[in-house]
## 1
Amino acid sequence: MSSRNKILATVKNNQPGPSDLPPDHNGPTVNGVDLTPQFINILEAIGGAAFLVSGYDRIATILREQFPDANRVVTSCHQLTAFAAGTSAAAALSAETPADPHSFENVDLAILPAHFGVAENGACWITESQMIQRVLPFITQNLALIIPRNAIVATMHQAYDRIATLEAEANASVTNAPATEGFATFIAGPSKTADIEQSLVLGAHGPRSLTVFLVDEHLSDAGFY
Amino acid sequence: MSSSTNHKDHAALATQFNKDEARVDWHDQTLWFVRAKRDKAAAQVPDWETLRDTASRIKDNVLSNLSEYLKQFEEAATRNGIIVHWAADAKEHNEIVLSILRNHKVDRMVKSKSMLTEECHLNEFLKDNGVEVVDTDLGERVVQLADEPPSHIVLPCIHWKKEEIGQLFHKHLGTPEGNADPQFLTYAARLHLREKFLTRRAALTGVNFAVAETGEFVVCTNEGNADMGAHLADVHIACMGIEKLVPQRRHLGVFLRLLTRSATGQPITTYSSHFKRPRPGQEMHIVLVDNGRSTHLGRKDFRNSLKCIRCAACFNTCPVYRRSGGHSYHTAVAGPIGSILSPNLDMKQYSDLPFASTLCGSCSNVCPVKIDIHEQLYKWRQVIVQEGNATAAKTAAMKTMSWVLSSPGVYHTAGKAGRWFMLNVPFTVKNKWNAWYLQRELPEPPKQSFGQWYKKNRKQ
Amino acid sequence: MRVGLFIPCYVDQFYPQVAIATLELLEKVGCTVAYPPDQTCCGQPMANSGFEHLTGECTKLFIKNFNEFDYIVSPSGSCVLHIKEHSHENAGLHDRIFELVEFLTDVLKIDHLDASFPHRVGLHQSCHGQRGLHLAQMSELMAPPFSKPAQLLNMVKKIQLIDLDRKDECCGFGGTFCVAEEAVSVKMGKDRVADHEKHGAEVITGSDMSCLMHLEGILRRQKSPVKVKHIAEILNSNIQHEQQH
C-alpha cells in the first residue's frame, strides 16, 4: 500500500467525530470610517513610509527626492515609465518579455501597483500580474507600492472578501488567461529581523525600505501627507 | 520523572542552564518582553477572544475531516501544477527531498524556516548525502554556523547574545572582530545570504497554512528569505505536516490575524506569500508528512495538539521555558507544545517533558487555537507512568504516600514523627541530599498539628 | 449551614495557624464549622506526579469524611481544584466544595470585614486558584479585570496593597516539581520574591500555603525581613490581635 493510502486510511480511522465549522467571522464593522489614518499610522509604526498624493506626477517628484541615487529603477506602471527610463540605463520591461529573475539582481527601486491596503496591519495585497516577476518585490533594494486611497479595507476578513471579488471580476473579464493568480502576497513594511537580541533591524533579505503611495485624485496638488 | 544519571533529561539540562543566573535573567526577561508585546497587540484587537474561539473551532473541523481535506488539497494542488508527495515518516520525507534534488542534479540548496525539517533531521541527512543546505533565516543561519539546533521555533537564536553572534560572524563571515552592532551584522548576513539566493537552483520552504479549497499554501516571513529562495530557484520544495490545512481561503483571515500577534506582537509578518502555481519554467513540489501525526490523531486526550500553528506564544509565557531554554527540552519543538507533542513520537525519550512544568496554565490562555496544553501535560503524566516509565524509586515513594494518606492513623503518626525528627534531629532533613533544602529553608515544625489543636481546644 | 473544614495536609502539619485563622474567620461570619478529624489529603501530590491511579483510597476517605456537609471549605485553591477536576468518584461533592476566598465572595457574599492589618502587602496570585477556579482575571486574556482576593483584602483596614511587575507569574512550587526541578523552581521563586521586594512588600500573601511555604523558604534563606501570611490570617486579623503583636 502506498504511503498516501496508508496515511489517508489511518487518518480516516483516527479522526475525531463531526465538528462543524463556526459561522463566518467578519470582525467589527467599520462603515463610513476613513481608514487612511489607521493604515498610515500602522505602516509607519512597522517601518514603512506613506504618502497621500493626488497623482503620478507627485509620485515621481517624491521618489526623485527620496531616492536620488537610484541607478536602476523598474516599474510596471506605464505612468512612470518615463521616470524609470530617465533614471536608469535599462529600459522599462514589457510584459511579454519573460525575464530571468536573476536579471533583477541590481534593481535599486521597484515601483509597482497593488490592489488594496489593510488598515489593521498596514499591509498591501499585490498579485503576480502586477509584479513583472515574482522575485522583483523582494530582490529590489527599495520598494514602492501604489494603491488607490479608497482601496483600504479594515481587517484581513474584508481583505479576503476583496480578494474573492477581484478574482470573480478577473474571471468574468478575461477568457483566456487563468482566473486566479499563481502567486500573490501581502507586504507589510520593509523586510526586517529582530533575531539579534531582539533588536529590530529594517532590511533583512528583502527590500530595505517600503513606501506606499495612496492616490486620491480629489486632493489638490498642494495637499500631500 | 527525572533521573540525574540521564544527562539528556530536562531537569539535568535545566540545572546546567541555571548555573549562570545572570544569563537566565537575561533570557527570561527577553522572552517575557515578547509575551508583553503579544499582550499589547492582542489588546488592540477588540474581537481577540472570539477570534481565538473561531480559530479553535475551524481547526477542530479540520481534524474531524482531515482525510477529506487532504484529498481535496491534493486534487486542487495537482490541478494547479504542484507535484504532491506523501511521506509516512521522517525517513521517507528526507528521501523524497533528496530524490527531487538528485533529479535536478542539485547539490546545493537554500532553506527557509521549517520546524518539520528539524523534526526530520533533514539537514544532517542531506549533508551525509552530499547536499549542502544553507539556512537563510538569520536566526537559523546563526545556529547553523554554530552547529547547534534552534532553541525556539520562531526566534531560533534567542539564547545568543549579540557579542557572541559578532564573534561567530567574525569567524565565518569575516566581519570585524568585536563588532556586535545588530544593524551591521544583519547587513553582513544580507550580503552573505544574497549570494546564496542568487546561485542556488533549489529552495526548500516550510508551510504555515495550506488551503484545501484552492490547493495553495502560505509562507509567512519577516525577512523575505522564503521568497528570495523560491522565486530564484528552478525547484521549489515545500514541506508540510498533514495537520497544517485550513478548509477555505477566507479562513486565512482568522489565522493571519492571530499568528504573528501571538508570536511576536506584530500585526502581521512583513510577507504572507500565497503560492498557488509554479513560476513558468519552475517545478513546485509539496511533501505532505505524517511522521506520527496520524497516530496522534487517534489519541482522544491529546489530538488537540495537532491544531498548533507554531506561533510559540506558549514558549514565551512559560516561566519554566524562560528559565531553562529550548535546548533543555532536547527535542525539535520545545516549550509547552513540544512537551505534549514529543511523547507521541517517542514516549521513553521524552517522558521527562510533561513533568517540566508547574501546570500553571498560562500556556493554554495564550494559545491562539485554544489547545488545552496544561490539561494535556497532566494527562501525559498519567499515561507515562502507566506505560511503566516512572523510576522504581518514584513509584515506591508514591505507593508509600498513597498508603500513608489513605489511613488517618498512619498519617497522624507519620506527621508527628516527621515533625519530631525535624525538631530534634534536624540533620535528617537539613542536608545536601534533600533537594528542598539546597536553596530554601524548611518550614519550622510547630509543636502541634492543627488536628491536635482542634482535638484539644474545640472538640466536645 | 454546616461547613466542613478541609485542611491541606501540609497546613495541618506545618501551618496550623492558617487553619485556626480559617476556622475563626468562618465562624466570625456566621458559619457552623466542623473539622472531620480523620481527613488526610486530597490526593493531589500523587495525581500531579502521574499517579492518579493510586488516589482512589484517598478520595474514598475524603468522601467519607465530607459527604455530610452542606459546604466544604478549604484554604487552598489547588486542593479544591484537584477535587473538582481530577478526583472522579467525588459523589457530587464538586458542587459543594469551595476555596475560602470564593466561598466568602460568592456564597456568603461578604461586603465588609472587621479586620485591620497595617502593612504593605503583596498579593501572590496562586495559579490553580486563579486560572483553575477563576479567583481573579488572567493577564493573558483580553477580558475585564477582577480579583476576589483583592476584593477581600481591600476590606481590611489600614492595609496597603502593592503593585507588581508580573501580576500572575507562577512561583515555581508546582508540587513534586519543587524538588524534581529544584533549580528552575527556586529561580522562579526568587524572581517572585524580588518582584515583591522591589515594590516594598512587608508581607506576601495568597490563597495557597504551598506557594507561600516555597517563597518563605527562599525569603528565610536570604534572611529577608519579608514575611508570608496566608490570606485567612490577614482577613482574620483585627485590632485586638494587632495589640497582641
## 2
Amino acid sequence: MLLAEGLRHAFGSVRALDDVSFTLHPGQTLAVFGPNGAGKTTLLKVLAGLLRPAGGHARIDGGRRAVGWIGHQPQLYAHLTVRENLRFWASLYDVPEADLERREADLLGRLGLLEHGDRAVRALSRGLVQRVAIARALIHDPRVLLLDEPFTGLDRTAAEEFRRVLAEQAAGGRVTVLVTHNVEEGTELASDVAFMRAGRFVQLEPRGGRGAVEIADAYRRAVTGG
Amino acid sequence: MADVWRHAWRLARKDLLVEFRSRTAILSAVVFTVLVLMVFNFGRDPTAVAAVDLAPSILWVTFTFAAMLALNRAFQLELENQALDGLLLAPIHRASIYLGKLVANLIFVATVEGVGLPLFALFFNVPILPVLGPLLAVIALATVGFVAVGTLFSAMTARTRFAELLLPVLLLPFMIPPLIWAVLATAALLAGRPLSELAGWLRLLAAFDIVFVTLAFFLFPATVNE
C-alpha cells in the first residue's frame, strides 16, 4: 500500500506540493496529469523519499526495497554494459542469483534488449537507454512503481510492450504512480486519475470506463478551466 | 555491518570497473604525477639543496594533488544520469556508499602512488629500497587519512557549482596535519634515522585515520540527504 497524507513542499516561495493526500492499494495505478511545473516530479520524489516533505508524510509498505523508480534521467553508468548495469543495481537489492538470471533474461527479451545486453550504455540510442532504465527499475521486482514520464524516447513498439508490462504488474498486485503531461500516454493504464495544478490535486477520482478523449476533456476543464 | 561492507564492495567494484573502462581520471592522475616529478627534478638546482632534503615534500605534494583528481571524480560519476538518486533509493545503508567510494578512491590513489614512487626514486636518486616497508606504511597511513576526508568533502561539493574549485579549498586545510606528519616521517626515513623516531608520526597518522574515517562514516549520510 502507498499512503500520502497532507504532503507539502516548497522551493523558496514556490509551492511545489500543497496538501496532497491519497491512498493506493495493491493493483491500483494512479495517473497524475499536470502541466510543466505542476509539482508532479516533486510528488514522486517525496513519495520515494528523495525529498523530505515540509509537511505531511508518505508511507510505502516495504520501504525503499519495494520501490522501482523511473525518473527523467536513466540512472545508468554509461561505460558499463546493459547487463553490468542491471547486475550492479540488482546487487544493491540483494536479488538472488537464480532470480536475477531469470528476471534479466525476461526483461531484456520483453524490452527488445537481448541483442544489446553486452553493449555499453553510452553506445545506445536514447530510446534504447530508456528501455534499459525500465529494466533497471523492474530488475528487483518492486511492489511499488514510481514513474516519471516513462514513455519518453520509446518508439511505438517499445511503448506498447511497456504498457503490457505495467498492466501485468498491476494485475500482479503492484501499485503504480505514473506522472505525465501527456494524457493519452497514461490513461489506459490508470485505475485512478489525478489532475495537478500549482502543487495541488484539483481532481482525484477513479477513471471508470473513460477513455483518453474524456479524460483529456476533464483535464482541460480541471486544469485550465476551459 | 556485514551488509554495509558487502554493498560497499559492490559499489567500489563498480567504480573501479567504470574507471578501468573510461580511464579518464587514472590517466590524468598518472600523467600529472610524472609531469610534476619531472618538473621538480629538472627545475631544481642540485647544488643548492640536497635531493634528500627536498624529496619528501615533492613526493607528498605530488601525491596530494594527484589524489585530488580522483576525489573530484568520485561523486561526479554518480551525478551523470542521476545515478546518485538510484543509490539513495536503494535499500542500502548510506554509509555503504561512503565506504564504497573510500575503497575505490584508495585503490585509485594507491595505483597512482605505485607509479609515482619508483619514478620519484629514479628522478631524485633517493634510496627507498632499504626503507621500503616503513615508507609504504607512512604512505598508506597518510593516504587513508586524506582520502577519508576527501571522499566526504567530495560528496558535499559534488552537487555545488564550481565543485572542482570548492573541493581543494575545503580539503587542503584538513590535509595539512597528515601531510606535515607524512613529510616529516618520510624525511626521517630517507635520512636513515632509526625507526623508533618515526613511531610518533605513525601514531599521529593512525589516530588521524581512526578519527576521520569514523567521523566521515557517521557524517556522510547527512551530506547526501536532500
## 3
Amino acid sequence: MLTYVVRRLFYAVLTFFGISIIVFVLIHIVPGDPVLFYVPMGGSGTISPAALQAIKHAHHLDEPLLAQYRWWLQGLLTLDLGTSITARRPVAELIGEKLPNSFQLNGIALLLAAAIGVPIGLWSAMRSGRLSERAAAVTFFLLYSLPSFWVALLLMQLFSVRYDILPLFGMRSEQYLQLSTGARIVDRLTHLVLPVVTLAYAQLAIFARFSKAAVTDVIRQDFITTARAKGVAPGSVLWRHAFRNALIPLITLLGLTIPYLISGSVIVEQIFQWDGIGRLYLESILKRDYPTVLGLTVVTAVVTLLASLAADLMYAVADPRIRLGGGRAT
Amino acid sequence: MIRKAAAVLLLVVCLACRERQLPPVSATAPDESKPQAGGTVVRRLDADVSTLNPVLITTKYDHYIARYLFEPLLQYDSTLEVAPGLAEKWEIAPDGKAYTFHLDPKAHFSDGTPVRAADVLFTLKKIIDPASEAVQIAGQFDRLDLARTRIVDDRTIVIAFTEALAPQLSWFFSVRVIPEHVYAAGDFKTAFDRQIVGTGPYKLVRRVPGQEILLERRDDYWGTKPYLQRILFKLITDDATAWNAVKRGDVDETQVPSEIWARESGRPELKKYLEFRRFYTLNYNFVPWNLRDPLLSDKRVRRALAMCIDLESVVKNLYRGTARAMSGPFTPDQWAYNPDVPVIKYDPQEAKRILNSLGWLDTDGDGWLDKNKKPFRFEMIIVAGNIASGPFSQLFQAELKNIGVDMKISQLDGNTFMERILGSNFQAAVLNWELDPDPDPYALFHSSQMPPRGYNFIGYSNPAADKLIEAGHREVDRSKRVAIYRQLHALLADEQPYTWTIQVSVKWALNKRLHNVKESKGWGLFLWTPAELDWWIPADARTHDRQPPTK
C-alpha cells in the first residue's frame, strides 16, 4: 500500500510539472500581451513606453521564455505564486480570497446533487423500464439539456424580479455587517439558493443517470439473483448487495467531480456576481495575466491529482478485493 | 457524518462572514423641497477597480472611485472647460512653457495636514518616474522641465515644460495630489492598498475585492461638503443582472445597453420610478484603414469603400435612432467640430464606378472585382462578442459584396485585437475612441506618433495634415485653434485615413430617488465638477439606509 502511494505521488509530481510546462507554453503562444491592459484606448492620450517597459521588466516579461519559466518555478518551489500583472497583488492572495467562495457554492451544489441524484438513480434501477422511471429519465434529460445561463435568468426573473423572495445577485445584503452571526448565515444561505439550484439541476441528472447505470450493471449479475432467490428483502438486496458493488464507478465519478469544486463555474458566477475562481480564471486569461493563470492552474492541478489519488485509495476501501501496489494477487 | 458535514459547511460559511462592524445609520428629519444631507447611493461598478492609487489610474472604474477620494490641481466644469481644483488660481507664462499654481489655502488631506507645494512636486515626480508604472499619464508630463520647476512658497508652485503645448493645461486634471509624508517611503505601487490619504470629500470605509467598495463622507472635508453620506459601489459585471438590479431598486444607476434600452425604456410602469437618460459623450466609432497596405493606400479607394456604408440604415435599424453619423475626427459637441463637412453619402453605384475607373474590374466573371489577376479582398478584424461591431461589419460586408469587394470578417478576443491594432498588423477594423476634453488629435494622426509612442497605427503621414496638427498642438489661442481644427477636420474627412461612422449615445437608467443628477457636455453624469458630488436623496426615499429587522 505504502509503495503504491509513494509511486503514485511520484507520478503525480511528474504529471504536475508536465501540466505546468504545457500551460506555460500554451498561454505564451496565444497571441496577446498582458501589458496591453495598461494601454489607454483613449484617442488623445499618450503611451509611456518607459513605464510599459518598467512593468515588463518587473514581471520578467522582457526575458526569454525559458528564463521566465525558471523564475516562475523558482517562486513555486518557495511556495510563491508570483504577483498578478493586472491586479498588482500576490496571486496566492487573489486565489485565497475567491477559493472559499467557490468551494462554498460548488460544494453545496455538489452535495445536493449527489444527495438527491444517487437515491433517484437507485430507485430508477429498481424500476427500470416502467413508465414512471421512463418519465423520470426524460425529465432529467430535459433538465440536463437546459442551458444554465437561461435557467439562471429565468430563476432570477421569477424569484427576484417578479416575486421578491430571494436576492437577485451578490453574496450578501447591504445590511450584512449589522446582522448577528445567525442572521448572517441565513443571509448567506438565501444568496446561495439561486446559484446553487442553477448549478445543481444539471449535476443531479448526471448523478442519477450514473448511479442508475452502475446499479443496473450489478443487478443483472448472478449473485443478485441468488440473493433474491434466497429470499433476501428487496431493500436489502439493493442496499447491501447491489449498491455496495456499484460504489466503484461512483467513486470514480466523485474523483472526477472534486476538482470542479474549485475550478468554478464561470457562467453562474458571472450572472449571480458570485466572487469565485471561475471568473478570476476567465478574466486573467482574457487579460493574459500569466502569473494568475499559472497560479490557478497549479491549484487546480494539485487538487485534481490529489482527488484522483484519493479515489484510487478509496477503491481499496470500498472493495477489499482490489489490492494496490505490487501485491501478490492470487 | 451528516453532523460533521454540516459543521464543516457552517465553518465555511462563517469564514466568509468575518468583517468589520459598521455603526447603524440614523434617520434625519425630512424636508423634501431642498437638498438634504445624508443617505446612501448604490452605484453599479461594471468591472472591479484595478487600483486605488490615483497616479496609476488605468480604467474608467478607477476614475469613478478616485473622483471621491482625491482631487486634481484643475477640474473640468459642466462645459468641460478647465476650472479650479486644488489650485484656486493659476497663471501661464507668456511663452506658454510655465504654469504658476496657487493652492487653495483651505485644502487639507484627510489626515489633517495642509496640501503643500512640495506635495504637488512629489506627485509630479511620481508620475514621471517609470518605476511608478503610470502608463496612462506619464506621457502627458514627459516634457516636464524639472530643473526649472520650483516651489515658490508653501502654497505656490511653478511647473515648467520644455515646450509649450495647447492641451497641457487640461492635463493637470491628471495630477491628483497625494501627500509626500505618507507615500514617500515603501512600495508606491501597492501603498494605496494599505492606507488612503487624499484631499477628496469622501474616505474609504472598506473595499471587498470582487464585490463592493464603500465610501463615507468626510466630516472634516475642507471644501463644499457633498450631500450624500455614503457611496456604495456594487460590482455587477453582467448587463442583464445590472438591469434587473436597477429595476428592483438594488442599485440606483446603471448604464443600459442599446438592446435593453430599445425594449424597456418606453415601459410606463418603469418610468414611474426610473429616469431614462440618453446623451452623447466624447466618443465615436470608426473603421481604421491600414494605409501601408497597397490595397488601401489610395484615398479614392477608401472613399469608395466608405460610400458602401449605409449609415442611415445603421442608425435606424441597429440603434433605433439613438446614434448619429460622424463626418470626421471631431464630434458635434466639440468646439473643434466643422459643421460644413458633410458625411460621405451612401452610394454603392458611385463606389463601383470609382473602383472600375481605378482598374478594378470583374475580368474573370466570378463576381469579384480584380486587377492584375488579384481579387479585391481584405480582412476586417473585430472584437468577438462586441454588439456594436458584429452587426455593423456584417452589413458592411453585404454591401461590399454587392459591388464585388470581398471583405472577410475575423473575430478576435480583445487582447489579441489590441495587439494586432497597435502592431499595425491589420487591414481594416472596427474601433471606438473615448476622447479627452481637449480635442488635440496629435497622438492619432501626426506622423511622429506611430506606435509605440502614440496611436497612429494606421501609418498616416501627410505633410499638410502634420502642419495643421502641430499648429493646433501648440496654439494656445482658442479662436485660432478653432480655425486650424476646422481645416484639419475637412482635410481628414477628404483623406479618410479612418472612415468615421457613428456616434452612439450613452444610455442610463437612474432611480428617481436620486435628485440633481446633471450631465455635462461630453462627459455625461460623472467626473466633471460638481457632477456626482451634487446628488442628493430625500430622507423618505433612503431605502438603502433602512435598519435591518432586529431579532
## 4
Amino acid sequence: MTDTDTLPPAPDVAGTSLDGTRVFTISAEENAALCRSTGVEPAADGSAHPIYYYIATQVAMGKTVAGVCDTCAFDVEDGPMMGSSGVRFDAPLKVGESYKVTGEILSLVRKRSRKLGVMDVLTYRLRLHTLDGAKVLETDNIWVLPRKELA
Amino acid sequence: MMRYAIGDALPPFVIESVSPEAMKDWAVFLADPNPIHLNVEVVKAKGLGDRVINQGPINVAYMMNMLMAAFPGGRIESMDSRFLDNVFGGDRVVASGTITAVEDGRVACEFTLAADGRGPVNSGTATIAI
C-alpha cells in the first residue's frame, strides 16, 4: 500500500483533446515588442523569437488555462504552478506565418509533496503546425496543481 | 566558424531589473490576465510576496536570449526548462550556462537563470544546431 492509496484518485483526463480551432499569426509588430521586452532586438532574418513556441501553443490550444484546470476539476484561482516546459523544434518560427495547434492531456498524477501537501501533476502535449499541416514543433508542459482540500 | 568545447562557459545574459511594465505586455501576448503578474495587492493577499511575479515564459525567453547570443547563427533544436522559484519585479537576473557536449554540428548545454540574492530560479538543458 502506498501513501497515495488513501487519497481519492485524480480525475481520469488522459487523452482529453486540446486541439485548437483558432489560427495564431505571429505579427512583426508584436514580435518586435516581445523581443524588446526581454532585452533583445528582433532578428533581421524573419525568424520570430523562439519563446513563441509557448505563446502560440498556449493561446491557440483548444482550452484556456482555466479550462484545462476545470477539466482537471481544479479551480484556477487555487494557483496552478508551472513545473517544467520542454520543446523540440522541427523548423524555426517565422514572423508573418500562421499556425494551428493540436494536442492532448497526457496524464494527471496525484502525489504527496513535503512542500505542497497533496498535488496533481498535469502533463500535456501540444504541437504547432503550419496551415498546410507541417509540424513545426512539439512541446510538453508540466503543471503542478496543489490540492489544498486534500492536504 | 567558431570552435566550441565541452566545459566552455556561455557568456551571461543579464536583465538588470525585471520590468513590471513588460509583465503587462506579456499578459496580452499570453492572453492571460492572471493578477499575480499585474497587481501587487493580489500577490500580497495570496501570501506570495510583496512584488508582482514575472510570467514563467519570460524567464525562459531570457535563457533563450543567452543561448542565441552564445551561438550566433545557431538554432535551438530542443530545450527543457524547470521552474524552481518565482522571479519578481525589480529582480536582477542572470542567465548563464556551460557546454556539455559537442557533436555532429550540434552543441548541448546546461544553464540556469539566477536571481541576485536568491540563486537559481530556473534551470534547463538545450541542444543547438550550429
